[in-house]
Specification:
Blueprint: H1 6-15, H2 19-22, H3 32-37, H4 43-50
InterPro entries: Liprin, SAM, SAM/pointed_sf
Domain SAM: 4-36
Keywords: Coiled coil, Repeat
Length: 58
């Protein structure tokens, strides 16, 4: 995960069933090291970047 590029993160999001939201990560700068090492980056931050409607995340 640490070495995942933004494109690899997008591929992973597609693979876990969030294909309709994956494009929202393109050019976001999100990469594997951010996901793995940034303590403030949690599922809520990912949902916000993916632009998943809040009723789907509660």
């Amino acid at each position: 995960v640490l070495v995942w590029t933004n494109e690899r993160v997008v591929s992973w999001v597609q693979a876990i069933g969030l294909k309709e939201y994956a494009g929202n990560l393109l050019e976001s700068g999100v990469h594997g090291a951010l996901i793995a090492l940034d303590e403030s980056f949690d599922h809520n931050a990912l949902a916000l970047l993916l632009q998943i409607p809040t009723q789907c995340t509660q």
